[in-house]
Task: inverse folding
């Protein structure tokens, strides 16, 4: 059992849970695999029953179950990614390292390319405003991606891109993209800080990542249009051939037109239509196409059947959206938020009824029954008392 300060300056990957929590019980076998994967590392994997040790939960400000936290000395960081073994192991291994790691041999670049789909690099001497900003943002985004520092001699035969003595780049899925550090930008520290932060936050995603409830809020911070291919995975992660063809078609668009679309559009896919239905506030068929404006929360849906759309038709639809000529739905107005809450409540109630109608009837029927009794006793008791008073008065008059 983990207790505060037990590991000194050691590294702990801790799950805070409650025995009655269904989400915690579902996570238990995955957490066991995480512990096995990290067994031969310096990272200690632990779990804390917050019902038995509430002071520990209070110390780490645990407000929900399960909460997963990486603890390294005075550093405490809550894990908010996917609750899958590989994702959690990669996160823990990344957090165990310095925020910026130095690469000294050219042979290491090949290993980085094989082991990381995305990583950020700084080329040059570790001094000056660009290095300071790079190191600062590396600490901020360490939970999400990898950062390295290297000399120009190390990368000159391994990475084609940085030609200046000092540069910042991102290696993303076999391509290299440079940060535009102009002389004017380097003279303005505040502007450099803002621009580099926005660039790293935007470029840390792949060209066609999976979008889930756990990470969609991260995508909403990139100020792009999010192009989402919606399919429906079964419990084994399988989809129909029609859905696969549609998903591959959408992915092929960004692969072939990176230079044209990447600046304004972030492509991705969803394996569960429920999240897309919540955004669109309607029941979408699958496969489907949804474009979400991460700045205004508006969304766009094509008028044509997405299954029948060609890559050219999709690109034309995106051009219409960018030029603000496509129909716009949703938004972030209070009426929209109210209707979305109603839609999600209706959807949740419907899924509960389909899954277990008896339990749903009990959950909602008993409170409604008690509420009816209370209303009856409050409002009908006055009527009964009034009838009794009238009856007494009539007897008195007869007497």
Result:
């Amino acid at each position: 059992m983990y207790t505060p300060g037990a590991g000194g300056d050691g590294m702990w990957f801790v799950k805070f849970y409650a025995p009655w929590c269904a989400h915690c019980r579902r996570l238990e076998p995955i957490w066991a695999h995480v512990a096995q994967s990290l067994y031969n590392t310096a990272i200690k994997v632990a779990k804390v029953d917050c019902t038995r040790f509430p002071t520990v939960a209070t110390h780490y400000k645990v407000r929900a179950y399960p909460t997963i936290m990486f603890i390294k000395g005075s550093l405490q960081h809550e894990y908010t990614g996917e609750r899958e073994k590989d994702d959690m192991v990669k996160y823990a291994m990344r957090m165990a390292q310095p925020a910026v790691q130095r690469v000294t041999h050219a042979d290491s670049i090949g290993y980085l390319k094989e082991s990381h789909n995305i990583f950020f690099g700084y080329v040059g001497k570790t001094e000056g405003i660009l290095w300071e900003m790079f190191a600062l943002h590396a600490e901020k985004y360490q939970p999400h991606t990898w950062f390295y520092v290297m000399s120009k001699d190390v990368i000159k035969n391994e990475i084609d891109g940085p030609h200046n003595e000092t540069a910042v780049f991102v290696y993303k899925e076999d391509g290299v993209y440079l940060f535009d550090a102009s002389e004017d930008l380097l003279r303005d520290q505040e502007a450099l800080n803002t621009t580099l932060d926005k660039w790293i936050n935007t470029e840390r995603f792949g060209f066609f990542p999976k979008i889930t409830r756990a990470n969609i809020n991260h995508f909403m911070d990139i100020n792009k249009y999010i192009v989402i291919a919606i399919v429906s995975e079964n419990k084994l992660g399988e989809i129909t051939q029609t859905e696969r063809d549609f998903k591959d078609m959408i992915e092929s668009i960004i692969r072939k037109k990176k230079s044209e679309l990447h600046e304004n559009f972030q492509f991705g896919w969803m394996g569960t239509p429920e999240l897309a239905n919540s955004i669109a506030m309607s029941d979408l068929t699958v496969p489907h196409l949804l474009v979400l404006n991460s700045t205004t929360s508006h969304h766009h849906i094509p008028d044509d059947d997405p299954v029948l759309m060609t890559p050219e038709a999709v690109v034309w639809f995106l051009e219409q959206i960018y030029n603000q000529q496509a129909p716009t739905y949703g938004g972030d107005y209070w009426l929209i938020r109210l209707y979305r809450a109603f839609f999600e409540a209706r959807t949740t109630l419907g899924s509960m009824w389909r899954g277990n109608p008896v339990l749903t009837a009990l959950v909602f029927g008993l409170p409604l029954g008690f509420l009816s009794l209370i209303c009856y006793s409050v409002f009908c008791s006055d009527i009964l008392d009034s009838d009794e008073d009238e009856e007494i008065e009539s007897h008195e008059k007869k007497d």
